[in-house]
Amino acid sequence: MARSRDDERRLLSADEFALVEKTRHPAIGRLPDHDLHELLKHVRDKRERARDIAAQQRREMRGKAAPRGLTAASDNTGTNGKREHLAQAVQRLNKEVSRREVKGKRAKNS
After folding, report:
1. Per residue in 47-86, pLDDT tens?
2. Of 10, 39, 42, 46, which alpha carbon lies 20 to 30 A from 94's?
3. 14-21 vs 77-109: helix axis angle to the nearest 10?
4. Measured between alpha carbons, how far is 1 from 5 in angstroms, rounded to an integer?
5. What is the dihedral of CA 15, 18, 19, 20, to 10 degrees?
């Protein structure tokens, strides 16, 4: 499901939003291969952290886990939204990496 950049700006922190913006056209096309792989690593780390926090919040809401803060989480829609935006960014990066690999193979064959 497509979401607006306003939603991204609201759900993501400033550094996460900056990372996600680099995964969009035309910025992703201008990244060197090394920077592309580093960006992929950072975005994956952010996505995994959001996934883990969302899972913890789900467990707190069901009463299966002790609260990490003073009170148990009552809602995790924001964290789930953050995870979704970061997952979409990882998909864009993976697609660009694959595209570049195919382009490199074609260049070697010709």
Report:
1. 999 999 999 999 999 999 888 888 888 899 999 999 999 9
2. 10
3. 30
4. 13
5. 120
